[in-house]
Amino acid sequence: MLRPAPYPLSHNRMLLQACSNKQTGAVNRALSKMRIPVQAYRTYLFNLRSYADFQNLAFPRDISTAFGAALTELIVQGYILGATKSRKTRQAASRIAFSKLPSADDVVFSWDLASAKAVDSFTSSAFAIAQTLSTELRDSLQALAKDAFSQGLPFMQFKEQLAMQGFDTGNPYHLRTNFDTAANTAFAAGHWEQIKNNLELFPYLRYVALGNDRTCEICGPLDGLIYPHDDPFWDTWAPLNHWNCHCSVEQLTANEAEGSPKLNNPTDVMPKPQVGFDSNPAKLHYLPDTVRTSNPKLTDAKEARLPSVDAGAAWDKDQKINTNGMSKQELLDTYHSKIIEFHNKYEAPDKSVCLIVPTKEVLGKFDSNKYTLQDLRRRFQYLNYLPDIIQNPDEIWDRNINNKPRPHFIKVLDKNVVLVFEAVDGHYEYFNLMLLDQIDKIRNGILRYKK
C-alpha cells in the first residue's frame, strides 16, 4: 500500500546539487590527467625553430589518447553514479513503504546487458571525438602560425603568446566542456535505465533544474514540469538540453503527480534545446560533441574530393506509390496519411536524430498552388522512403539557410532520381526530388556524413 507524502522540488534540488558536485570533482580529476600530455605538446611547440616547422606539425597523439581515455572513464563513472545515487536518494527521501522496493542502503550497481550496451555505445564515440578535436587543435595552431607570418610577427614573439585554444591548463574550455557533457550524459543514461525498472511504482517524471544562478533560459521554464514517463515531451526536453547542463528528472508516484498544476502543462513558449541535445541523448545513448559547433569547416563536393554520386543504388522499388491519375486532393491526403504514419524519431548514421512530426505547418507544406499536379505526382511516388532517407542516406550536409544550419539528407535511387530530405532543429521540414546532374548544387556546407 503506497502512502503518499510531499516530495518538495527544493529537496530534490539539494540531491541533484550533491550529484553535480561529485561529477564536477570527477571532471577536475580528468583535467588534471591532461596536464602532462598538454604540457609535453606545448614543449614540443616551443622547441620548433621557424614558421615552416608549423606547416608540418605533428599530430598531438598523446593528447588524443589521454583525452579519449579520460572521456571513457568519466562515462563509466557517470553511468554508475546515475544508476545508483539518484535511486538511493529518491528511495531514502520518498517515505514510501512497500515490500517491492529495496532499502536505499541495499541499492548496488551490477552490470547487465542493457547497461553494457549503453556504455559501449557512449564509449565507441569517445576516442573519435578526442581525435577530431585534437586534429582541430593542430589545424588551428597551423592557421595561427600562417596568420602571424603574413603579419610579419617575429617567430619568438609568436611562440611566447601562442595559446593552445581550449586545451591550455589555464583555460581548458574544450576539455572541460566535453568532459562535463560526457559525465552528465552518462549519468542521465544510468538514471534512465533505473527509471525503467520502477515504472510500476513511479510512472511520472518531473524536470528538475538546479534552481541557482547556473539555471539558464532553456532549463528555467522547464523546471518542475511533470509528464508520464512515456510522454513524447521527454523525447525532446529530457536533460541534457545544452552544453554544461546539470539538470535531471525525478520519478513520482501517481499520487505525487496528480493534482499538480505543472502536470501535462507546458509553458506558453517552450524553449528549444541546443543543437545536438534535442533528442534525448541519454535515452538514445550517444554523446553530443563540440565538433559541429567548434569552427566546422565549410566545403563542397569538389574541394572535399568526393566522387560523383553514383546512380543505381540498391533500393526497394516495391514501396513506390502509383500516383498516376490521382487528383491534387488525393495526393495531399496521401501525404498527410504518410506523415502521420511516420510520426516517430529516426537515427541517422552520424548519430543525429530527426523527428517526423505531423504539425500544421508540415501537413500544409504542399498546399500552395506553386506545386503543380505533375510535380506532386512525381514527388509523392517516393513518400514511403522518407524514414530511409534519414536512416540510410548517401550523404548529409549542413547547409547555411538564413544564417541557420539546415541538414540535407541525400539519397540516390535508380537512374536520374535523387531524394533530398531537409530538417530544421531536428525536425522534418521538407523533401524534394532532384535530377542527378543537379545534385552538386546542394553538396556544399559542412559534410556531416558520407556513406
Task: Tell me the layout of helices and strands.
Layout: H1 9-46, H2 51-54, H3 61-94, H4 113-150, H5 155-160, H6 173-197, E1 204-208, E2 226-228, H7 233-237, E3 248-252, H8 254-257, H9 281-284, E4 299-300, H10 328-341, E5 344-347, E6 353-356, H11 360-363, H12 373-380, H13 386-391, E7 395-401, E8 404-412, E9 417-424, E10 427-435, E11 444-450
Antiparallel strand pairs: 1-2, 1-3, 4-11, 5-6, 7-8, 7-11, 8-9, 9-10
Helix pairs in contact: 1-3, 1-6, 3-4, 3-6, 4-6, 10-12
**What fraction of residues sit in β-strands?**
5-15%
Strand order of the largest sheet: 4-11-7-8-9-10
Q: Quaternary state, please?
A: single chain
Ends distance: 55 Å
Helix content: 40-55%
Apparent shape: flat
Notes on the structure:
The structure is a single chain. This protein is α+β, with helices and mostly antiparallel strands and about 450 residues long. The protein folds into two domains: about 10-290, no CATH class; about 300-450, no CATH class. About 40% of the residues lie in helices and about 15% in strands. The chain has 13 helices and eleven strands. It has helices at about 10-45, 50-55, 60-95, 115-150, 155-160, 175-195, 235, 255, 280-285, 330-340, 360-365, 375-380, 385-390; strands at about 205-210, 225-230, 250, 300, 345, 355, 395-400, 405-410, 415-425, 425-435, 445-450. The strands form three sheets. It has a six-stranded antiparallel sheet with strand order 4-11-7-8-9-10. The chain has a three-stranded antiparallel sheet with strand order 2-1-3. The longest helix has about 40 residues, at about 10-45. It is flat, with a radius of gyration of 25 Å.
